Amino acid sequence: MAKPLILPPNLTQPTPLTMVDLSRPQPPVKADPSPSFIAPHMMGIRTDEEFDTFMQDSKSSNKTAVVEFGSTWCQKCHEIFPTFYALSKKHDQLRYAVAQVDYMKERACGVRFSPTFAFFNAAGRKVDEVTGKDPQRLADHLWLHSD
């Protein structure tokens, strides 16, 4: 029979990870809740209001939106970003955004893995999702949702 793990007094049991750590510093409140530009065809989203503005713009342009939900500390997010960026240029009929879940309160609640690529149809409904950093799966889903 295995002995139970006894930690030294200066160590504590690890706590489960939380999706969004609201104790972290929040970005300054902007007067205009529009997303920031990462590139001419890709937006950066850090708040729920910016996400809502991006989705409203996607609805008005009648385009499918692809949002990468990730965080600054996620190594896999950093590794897949160059591929995501290159694929976004190839499939230019879609709208693209990168959302930082650390600063979002409500819109990132369903995100369980980092990175998560969520696909929203022109009506704003989530229709597909890709998790992880597999470039071929991401490329396949982008091709599938391209018109």
UniProtKB/TrEMBL annotation:
Gene3D superfamilies: Glutaredoxin (3.40.30.10)
Residue stretches making up the Thioredoxin domain: 47-140
CDD domains (alphabetical): TRX_family
Superkingdom, taxonomy of origin: Eukaryota
Listed InterPro entries: Thioredoxin-like_sf, Thioredoxin_domain, TRL33
PANTHER family referenced in this protein's UniProt entry, alphabetically: THIOREDOXIN-LIKE 3-3
Name the record gives this protein: Thioredoxin-like protein
Species name: Dunaliella salina
Phylogenetic classification of the source organism: Eukaryota, Viridiplantae, Chlorophyta, core chlorophytes, Chlorophyceae
